[in-house]
Amino acid sequence: MASKLLRAVVLGPPGSGKGTVCERIARSFGLQHLSSGQFLRESLGSGGVWLHPCCFPASHSHFCAAACPGFPRTLGQAKALDGICELDLVISLNIPFETLKDRLSARWVHPASGRVYNMDFNPPHTQGVDDLTGEPLVQREEDKPEAVAARLRKYKDAAKPVIELYKSRGILYSFSGTETNKIWPYVYTLLSSRIPPILSDEEH
């Protein structure tokens, strides 16, 4: 077990909480965030597809977990990823359409830093401005209500063959719900069967 190498990806539509889940995986299982987005973009020739930082283990752990939220996004990317590593598990987040639409439409960002706020559950201290700089927040064109439905349809069409691929390999684990806090305990339990946690579920 000590030499076990674990590779995982987190899939889900825009606004499903992929980044939050990966951050919790990193904290709970003693992982560090390393920016491997550029490496994967170059390796896969994906033409600038944005990737969150991957999670890799702290030096005290013999386990390795790569948790890349939102990637691969297409069947072509999934097959290209096969050429780099063999995945052990794929976590798929299934969130209702209306929940995603509300989350995305309430999202505002600080352009210079990329900090993201949600007006419903993570608002800035002062409406319309960044907490740290006081600079104006903006709503990205892709997060405006009229654009959200098209984004979600596009994701569904592209993700379906990717999900079917990993399902056929027996490595797909799907979690459904409207709140990350309610989905997280199930993700934690799944990973605890593969990696020794350093934080209990309650310590979040």
TrEMBL record:
It comes from Tychaedon coryphoeus. Residues 107-141 form the Adenylate kinase active site lid domain. Keywords: Kinase, Nucleotide-binding, Transferase. HAMAP family: Adenylate_kinase_Adk. GO terms for molecular function: AMP kinase activity; ATP binding. Belongs to the adenylate kinase family. InterPro entries: Adenylat/UMP-CMP_kin, Adenylate_kinase_lid-dom, P-loop_NTPase. This is KAD4 kinase.
